[in-house]
């Protein structure tokens, strides 16, 4: 019987792969046999990550550029049948202030990377998966900010809520071709982006931990493995869902 938890002979594209959750997804997927294409803006960071991922390939560029998505699809050739996409790339606005005080210019880059970038990759990969007729997987990395009103990061929250809506639409549109689409919504995970936010605002760490049932911040692997599970055949009947990986944060609300 085929091992439902393996990804042998399949190629997976991971955006935002140079650090944090994306880097952990690359390593985890490769450990299950997947051929991995990592996409990020930093060539040096991407090279450091892929040193630990045998046979992986890097694509360096801005995910909001549709040409980068096409380049990633081409890079996947020869790594196995194109099978999965993990839309993990994301940024927050440079400011940390209420929505009513957020200038319009802070919205554009967050929308461009978090939402339009994810849409560009979903379009590039999704059309290939449908044409190939083998099924496939798309996993969008959202956030608890998509379902909770986390203060002072309004543009980030809005893009993640939009990503969840896009997930449900893709699930319905691609389902007949055997392609599933789900979101995972991490809570507070110790990534570089979160660490930078908490360093700039030290009271946030205590606040985040106090609102989490497990009483701690998560680590990237704890978000990466649920994502990789959704890429496997073991998750074949899960689609259109947003799955919280938050240590019980929303249960404690």
Tell me what the structure shows.
This protein has 253 residues and is an alpha/beta fold. Helices cover 42% and strands 16% of the residues. It has a seven-stranded parallel beta sheet with strand order 3-2-1-4-5-6-7, sandwiched between helices. The longest helix has 26 residues, at 107-132. The mean pLDDT is 94.
Topology overview:
Layout: E1 10-15, H1 20-31, E2 35-40, H2 43-50, E3 57-60, H3 66-75, E4 81-87, H4 107-132, E5 136-141, H5 154-174, E6 179-186, H6 192-200, H7 203-210, H8 220-231, E7 242-245
Parallel strand pairs: 1-2, 1-4, 2-3, 4-5, 5-6, 6-7
Helix pairs in contact: 1-8, 3-4, 4-5
Quick overview of this protein structure:
With 253 residues, this protein is an alpha/beta fold.
Keywords, separated by commas or semicolons:
8 helices, single chain, alpha/beta, globular
> What portion of residues belong to β-strands?
15-25%
Overall structural class, as computed from helix and strand content, comes to alpha/beta
Give the termini distance in whole angstroms: 43 Å
- Biggest sheet strand order reads 3-2-1-4-5-6-7
The residue-averaged pLDDT reads 94
Tell me the Rg in angstroms. Answer: 17 Å
Low-confidence stretches: none
Shape: globular
- Percentage of residues in helical conformation: 40-55%
Q: What is the N-to-C succession of helices and strands?
A: EHEHEHEHEHEHHHE
The largest pleated sheet is described as: 7 strands, parallel
Number of helices: 8
Quaternary state reads single chain
How many extended strands? 7
């Amino acid at each position: 019987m085929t091992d439902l938890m393996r990804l042998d002979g399949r190629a997976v594209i991971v955006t935002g792969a140079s650090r944090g959750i994306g880097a952990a997804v690359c390593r985890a997927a490769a450990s299950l046999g997947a051929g991995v294409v990592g996409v990020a803006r930093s060539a040096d960071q991407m090279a450091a990550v892929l040193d630990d991922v045998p046979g992986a390939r890097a694509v360096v560029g801005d995910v909001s550029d549709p040409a980068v998505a096409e380049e990633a699809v081409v890079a996947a050739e020869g790594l196995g049948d194109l099978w999965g996409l993990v839309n993990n790339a994301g940024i927050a606005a440079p400011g940390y202030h209420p929505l009513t005080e957020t200038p319009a210019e802070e919205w554009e880059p967050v929308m461009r990377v978090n939402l339009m970038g994810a849409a560009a990759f979903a379009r590039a990969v999704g059309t290939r998966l449908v044409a190939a007729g083998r099924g496939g997987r798309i996993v969008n990395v959202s956030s608890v900010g998509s379902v909770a009103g986390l203060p002072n990061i309004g543009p980030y929250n809005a893009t993640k809520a939009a990503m969840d809506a896009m997930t449900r639409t893709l699930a319905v549109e691609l389902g007949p071709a055997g392609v599933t689409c789900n979101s995972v919504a991490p809570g507070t995970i110790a990534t570089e982006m979160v660490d930078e936010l908490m360093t700039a605002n030290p009271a946030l760490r205590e606040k985040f931990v106090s609102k989490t049932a497990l009483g701690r911040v998560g680590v990237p692997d704890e978000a990466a493995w649920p994502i990789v599970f959704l890429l496997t055949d073991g998750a074949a009947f899960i689609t259109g869902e947003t799955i919280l990986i938050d240590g019980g944060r929303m249960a404690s609300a």
